[in-house]
Amino acid sequence: MNIAVLALQGAFAEHRQMLQRMGVDSFEVRQASDWCRPKDGLIIPGGESTVQLKLLRDLNLLEPVREAIAGGLPVFGTCAGLILLAKQVEGEAHMRISTMDIVVRRNAYGRQSGSFFVKDRFAGKPIPMPFIRAPYIYKVGDGVEVLAEVGGKIVAAREGSQLVTAFHPELTSDTTVHSYFMQLVKRAL
Ligand code: GLN
To answer: Probe ligand 1: pick from 12, 56, 97, 107, max atoms within 8 Å of CB?
Structure first.
């Protein structure tokens, strides 16, 4: 199994380290030629969604990535990755990857006090959840399963083989969310 990790900006190295600890191979996608490599799943890291979107467009990666996800390639988006996957982002009309039926509010906890740490349940299991200027999901479509809520706000969800978290599991040593993603990848093989 080989997981592509979008490595244009943000916390991609931490995702690769997490996969490595789990014994899963991965490679970095920095340009269109990297995208041609065979892959069983894709991780879109946290960082700055506006910067990642611009680079995806400039590098001619946006369409191929969207098509692959629409075609069933399992994807895991954290934070900025969640924003890129959302069909709707409050106050923004432009297209992103826009494959997941969720409505998202960016910098939802305020810009200054937006970083915090909690332990809460993901798919029923308590795990550490670091939030960094995080978005949250305030509406999900019919086909979307809510996997975590913190303070009454949806912070993790799944639609088919698309998984998103508003927090950063890759910044912890807990492999629960990445293992969950790898189950989606295995199921899609
Ligand atoms: N607020 C950032 C954005 O809009 C996301 C923050 C993060 O990925 N930690 O892209």
So the answer is: 107
Which atom of ligand 1 is found nearest the CA of 81? 8
The residue count for the chain:
189
Cα–Cα distance, 48 to 52 (Å, whole number): 6
The predicted-structure confidence for 85-112, as pLDDT tens digits, reads as follows 999 999 999 999 999 999 999 988 776 5
- CB under 6 Å to ligand 1: residues? 46-49, 79-80, 83, 106-107, 132-133
- Do residues 129 and 137 lie in contact, with contact meaning Cβ atoms separated by under 8 Å? no
pTM exceeds cut of 0.90? yes
What structural domains does the chain harbor?
2-188 (3.40.50.880)
